[in-house]
Automatic annotation (TrEMBL):
This is rhamnogalacturonan endolyase. Belongs to the polysaccharide lyase 4 family. The keyword DNA repair does not apply. Keywords: Carbohydrate metabolism, Cell wall biogenesis/degradation, Disulfide bond, Lyase, Polysaccharide degradation, Secreted, Signal. It is found in: Secreted. Residues 282-357, 370-532 form the Rhamnogalacturonan lyase domain.
Length: 533
C-alpha cells in the first residue's frame, strides 16, 4: 500500500510538473506559451505577431521589430490547449482569407506553424520572417551579411568591402532546403521545412528563394517563402502551406528528428482541427522507375509532380526507381528531370489510400553532334562563373571577366561564359570543319533563364540567322540575384548549305531585345549548352 502511495505521489508530482511547465497564459494582448522544452514565446493576439522568443533564458526576438507573416497581417488570435493529454497549444490567427496557426508541442523547443489561404493575400509575398536579435543570434550566412554595405542594385544587392552580398545569395533549392537558420552563443534558431512542407508553394524542386539576411541593425531574418515573384515559373497555390517549424537549439543545426531530418513527425497536426490539412490516410503515392537517361546522369534524376493544388518531388536511386511522398488525391503532371532539364512528362492519378505505378522514360533527342559545348542538363554548371553566380553579383571582383569572349571548340568549357549580357558583348565561337562536315547544319542553343526579353541572335561566318521571338520567362531579375532557374528554352537555328566551309569557321552569339539596361541589368540570358549537328 505504501509503495502504491509513493508511486501515486510520484505520478502526481510528474503530472503537476508537466502541467506547470507547459501551457499558455494571457496578459493584456499577449498570449504567452511555455513549451517545457526551454522555449517560451509570446504572440500578440490583436495582430498575430510574435513579440518574444526566449530560449534557455536568452531573448532571441529583436525588440524593434516582430516576427510575422510579411510585414504583419493584423490578425485576431484565439488560443486553446488541445490534443492528446492537452499536450498542444494551438493559436489560431485569422485575417480575412488568411489563417496563421502557431502550435506548441509539449517538450519541443519549437514554434510549429502552418499558413492557410483561400485567396491571394494582400500582404504581398506570403512569407514568415523571424526577426532575431543580432546580439543573441550573430552568425547567419556570410553571403547575406550586408552590415556596412552600399546598395549597388535596387535595395537588395550590396557591396561590402570588395565583396557583393544579398539576401538572395542565402537561397537553396527547395529540394535541398529542409533546414536553414542562424546561431549565437548558446542558441541557434532554425527554420525546418519537413516532408510535404512545400506542397502548396510554387516553383518546383529547383526553385530557390531568400533564407536569411543580416543587417546593420539587430536583425536576422530566417524566412520561409511560400508564394514569391522571384523568378517564379508557375502560378501561386492556395490552401494550407506547411507545416513548418521554427526550431531552437543550443547552437548547432538540428540534424535528426526520428529517422531523418525530413521525417520530422508532423502527424500530430491531424488531431488539431486545422483547416486544409489532408491526413496521410487520405493521401496516395506513386511508385515506378525512370529510364532512358545516360548512365553518367543516373545519380541526378528527379521525379516531379504538379497540379494547381500541390507539388511534390523525389530523387530516384541510381537504377531509376522511386516512390513519391504521400500526395493529395488528384491528377498530376509527372515530370522526369535529368539534373534540372525536363526530359519527359506524363499524367498520373493519385487516389486516397492507393499506390499508383507509373514508369517514365526520357523522350530527349540526342542527335549525333559535330561539337557540343556543355551538358544539356538544365543548368550552366561547368561554364565560366557558374560556380560563383549563386552567391555573388556578376560585378563582383572575384568573378572572371564576362567578355566580350572568344571560345575555341575543344578548349575547356570553364572558359565559356555561363551568361551573355547585351551591354557586355557577344561570345564568338571558333571551330574547324572537314569537307564532310559542311553543308546544311543545325545549331541548338539551350538556355535556362532570361531577363528583359534577352535571347540569342547568331552570325555564322557572314550569314545572319533569324531573330527569335521574345522568350516566355519570369518577369524578374534572376542572374544578378543568385539564380539561373527559369524556363528551359531551346533555340534551334537552321544553317543553310553554303554557309559553313571546310577549315576555319566562326559563330558569334549576341543578345537581342527591344529593351535595354546598364551592364548586368541589360537584357541577358543564361546558357545551358550548345551543339552543332
Amino acid at each position: 500500500m505504501l509503495k502504491r502511495l509513493v508511486q501515486g505521489a510520484v505520478y502526481l508530482g510528474l503530472l503537476a510538473s508537466s502541467v506547470l511547465g507547459f501551457g499558455y497564459t494571457t496578459s493584456g494582448n499577449s498570449i504567452v506559451v511555455t513549451t517545457d522544452g526551454g522555449l517560451t514565446f509570446t504572440v500578440d493576439k490583436t495582430s498575430g505577431d510574435i513579440t518574444s522568443m526566449v530560449f534557455n533564458g536568452i531573448e532571441t526576438q529583436d525588440s524593434s521589430k516582430r516576427s510575422q507573416i510579411a510585414s504583419g497581417i493584423g490578425a485576431t488570435c484565439t488560443p486553446t490547449q488541445t490534443g492528446n493529454s492537452n499536450n498542444y497549444v494551438k493559436i489560431t490567427c485569422v485575417a480575412g482569407s488568411l489563417t496563421q496557426y502557431y502550435v506548441a508541442k509539449y517538450k519541443d523547443p519549437a514554434i510549429h506553424m502552418a499558413t492557410y489561404i483561400t485567396a491571394e493575400p494582400s500582404v504581398g509575398e506570403l512569407r514568415f520572417i523571424s526577426r532575431l536579435k543580432k546580439s543573441a543570434v550573430s552568425s547567419g550566412y556570410a553571403v547575406s551579411e550586408i552590415a556596412g554595405g552600399t546598395a549597388i542594385e535596387g535595395s537588395d544587392v550590396f557591396k561590402v568591402g570588395s565583396a557583393t552580398r544579398s539576401k538572395f545569395y542565402s537561397s537553396k533549392q527547395f529540394i535541398d532546403d529542409q533546414v536553414h537558420g542562424a546561431s549565437g552563443n548558446g542558441v541557434g534558431v532554425y527554420m525546418v521545412i519537413p516532408g510535404n512542407g512545400y506542397e502548396a508553394s510554387s516553383g518546383g524542386p529547383f526553385f530557390r528563394d531568400i533564407n536569411n539576411q543580416g543587417g546593420e541593425i539587430d536583425l536576422y531574418s530566417v524566412i520561409v517563402i511560400q508564394n514569391s515573384g522571384h523568378t517564379q515559373t508557375e502560378s501561386n497555390r492556395m490552401g494550407l502551406h506547411g507545416p513548418y517549424a521554427l526550431w531552437f537549439t543550443s547552437g548547432s543545426a538540428p540534424s535528426t528528428f526520428g529517422e531523418s531530418l525530413i521525417d520530422l513527425n508532423t502527424s500530430f497536426w491531424e488531431g488539431l482541427s486545422v483547416t486544409g490539412l489532408v491526413p496521410q490516410s487520405q493521401r496516395g503515392r506513386v511508385t515506378g522507375k525512370a529510364s532512358g537517361i545516360a548512365s553518367s546522369f543516373s545519380n541526378y534524376q528527379t521525379i516531379g509532380f504538379s497540379n494547381s493544388a500541390a507539388q511534390y518531388w523525389v530523387r530516384t536511386d541510381s537504377s531509376g526507381a522511386f516512390t513519391s511522398p504521400y500526395m493529395k488525391p488528384g491528377t498530376y503532371t509527372m515530370t522526369l528531370y535529368k539534373v534540372e532539364l525536363a526530359v519527359a512528362s506524363q499524367s498520373v492519378t493519385v487516389s486516397a489510400g492507393g499506390t499508383a505505378t507509373s514508369n517514365i522514360a526520357s523522350t530527349e533527342s540526342n542527335p549525333s553532334s559535330i561539337w557540343q559545348i556543355g551538358d544539356f542538363d538544365g543548368t550552366p554548371r561547368g561554364f565560366l562563373n557558374a560556380d560563383k553566380i549563386e552567391t555573388m553579383h556578376p560585378s563582383d571582383s572575384r568573378m572572371s571577366s564576362w567578355g566580350p569572349a572568344t571560345f575555341t571548340v575543344g578548349n575547356s568549357v570553364s572558359s565559356f561564359p555561363m551568361a551573355l549580357f547585351k551591354a557586355v558583348g557577344a561570345v564568338k565561337i571558333n571551330f574547324s570543319l572537314t569537307s564532310s562536315q559542311i553543308g546544311a547544319r543545325t545549331l541548338q542553343i539551350a538556355t535556362t533563364l532570361a531577363f528583359a526579353g534577352g535571347r540569342p541572335s547568331v552570325v555564322v561566318n557572314n550569314w545572319n540567322g533569324p531573330a527569335p521571338a521574345a522568350p516566355s520567362q519570369p518577369d524578374s531579375r534572376g542572374v544578378t540575384r543568385g539564380t539561373w532557374r527559369g524556363n528551359n528554352i531551346m533555340y534551334t537555328v537552321s544553317i543553310p548549305s553554303g554557309t559553313l566551309v571546310a577549315g576555319s569557321n566562326s559563330i558569334t552569339i549576341n543578345v537581342i531585345s527591344g529593351s535595354s539596361g546598364d551592364m548586368y541589368l541589360s537584357p541577358n540570358f543564361v546558357f545551358d549548352a550548345l551543339r552543332l549537328y
